[in-house]
Amino acid sequence: RLLVAFNEAQQPWSLVPSQVYLTLGGLYSKLHRPLLSASSAKVASLQPFVTLSDCLGGMVLVLDNFHHHGSTEQDILPQVAPYLYRGLSFTKVSEAGITHYQSLSYQLTFGLSQLFYKYKMVKCA
């Protein structure tokens, strides 16, 4: 219903689809539907006008849902790989060789490398 309302009243709202899907993911999370929440986060990250904030928000949704349902906090879930990778694309914006989000870029790269190593994809790491 939220998506139908968004599509029907899209003109007066200043929301982009990624924000609507993240909101929907948050609602699914509150209803204890981790797979639907993760799916909404994934759809949000695939939208054409996605932002770094949307990618990080989707990753938080996935991590929160799966850590509350049996995973430990030390686990890096394979479901977060697309968010890590997409988030890295936003951190590569540079002026005169200086990267703006250096510490964030480092953390995203480190997380992605750990994930590749964990699943024995050492060449990718």
SS field, number of helical segments: 6
The proportion of strand residues reads: under 5%
Largest sheet: 2 strands, antiparallel
* Poorly predicted parts: none
Please, what is the oligomeric state? single chain
Mean pLDDT: 80
The helix/strand class is mainly alpha
Give the beta-strand count: 2
Radius of gyration: 16 Å
Largest sheet, spatial ordering of strands:
1-2
Helix content: 55-70%
How do the helices and strands follow one another from N- to C-terminus? Answer: HHHHHEEH
- What is the overall silhouette? globular
User: How far is the N terminus from the C terminus?
Assistant: 41 Å
Number of domains: 1
How does this model look, in words?
- This is SH3 domain and tetratricopeptide repeats 1.
- InterPro entries: SH3TC1/SH3TC2.
- This protein is mainly alpha-helical and 125 residues long.
- The protein has one domain.
- Helix content is 62%, strand content 3%.
- The chain contains six helices and two strands, in the order αααααββα.
- Strands 1-2 form a two-stranded antiparallel ribbon.
- The protein is globular.
- 27% of the residues are buried.
List keywords for this structure.
globular, mainly alpha, SH3TC1/SH3TC2, 62% helix, 3% strand, SH3 domain and tetratricopeptide repeats 1, 2 strands
Give the helices and strands, then pairings.
Elements: H1 2-8, H2 17-30, H3 34-45, H4 52-67, H5 81-91, E1 94-95, E2 98-99, H6 102-118
Helix pairs in contact: 2-3, 2-4, 3-4, 4-5, 5-6
InterPro entries: SH3TC1/SH3TC2
Protein name: SH3 domain and tetratricopeptide repeats 1
Organism: Nothobranchius kuhntae (Beira killifish)
